[in-house]
Design brief:
Length: 250
């Protein structure tokens, strides 16, 4: 565990010791603020029955920046080291393959989690500065960040796998966003084809939009947690074998 902790700390440092990490953080904070302000503008213009949390996480702007977070924070994880030749050096060092994979994944997840701290503070600032009760329940706020973490765990793993397959950061980013966009639009299959076909239940089960819908209403469900955590484990398992194969070739 000591080696894993050291490697994770080293990987996490690459986010905060380079301008790129701070640019990503600034971009995400800006988009979070725009999503919240557009939701509040909707509250001002017309009566809305849904909570502020629900409306904020159902804007097209949210999905636009949310899906682009993952290629940005994962495309360099393995691809950059493969391009520079440092991955071969790392794999010949006295560290295990699973430690290399998990350290990069954990660092990306820690950075991803940090990206949502400003959004949490923005929601809290609503009641701090207006001195009126917040336009959302505690359950909705907790559920929102719970599903963001669950989806983030899987989407970050997808980015890790894509980065392990190539030495090009651009290709890794394109592969990641392509997979995520496909996953996103799979949630619309039942909207397009209706509910009458046999696989409708499966598409409901994997629909990110439905998961966001339920959790932002404070309705917690274990099935999405099982889905995302199982898929994360499987993708990291694949990433481990891709990197292990490179290790044996090194």
């Amino acid at each position: 565990m000591r080696i894993l902790r050291i490697l994770t700390k080293k990987e996490l440092g690459t986010y905060f010791l380079s301008p790129f990490g701070w640019v990503v953080l600034a971009f995400v904070v800006l988009m979070q603020g725009l999503s919240l302000s557009s939701a509040m503008k909707g509250f001002r213009d017309t009566p809305v029955k849904d909570s502020l949390v629900y409306v904020t996480f159902h804007t097209p702007l949210f999905w636009f920046y949310f899906l682009f977070i993952f290629p940005l924070i994962t495309m360099r994880l393995f691809a950059d080291e493969e391009r520079s030749g440092t991955l071969e050096t790392l794999l010949t060092a006295p560290v295990r393959t699973w430690q290399v994979v998990l350290s990069k994944y954990f660092a990306a997840m820690i950075f991803y989690t940090i990206l949502w701290i400003p959004a949490f503070l923005q929601f809290k600032a609503f009641s701090w500065f207006t001195e009126i009760p917040p336009a959302y329940s505690s359950g909705a706020l907790f559920g929102s960040f719970a599903i963001l973490f669950l989806m983030g765990s899987t989407f970050t793993a997808i980015g890790c796998l894509a980065s392990s397959l190539t030495s090009s950061q651009i290709i890794a980013g394109i592969v990641t966003i392509t997979i995520l966009v496909i996953h996103y639009f799979l949630g619309f299959v039942t909207v397009i084809w209706g509910e009458s076909f046999a696989g409708a239940g499966f598409f409901h089960y994997i629909s990110s939009q439905q998961h966001i819908h339920y959790f932002t209403n404070g309705l917690l469900d274990l099935r999405p947690a099982v889905y995302y955590l199982s898929l994360t484990s499987f993708i990291l398992f694949l990433t481990y074998h891709v990197i292990d194969l490179r290790r044996w070739k090194a």
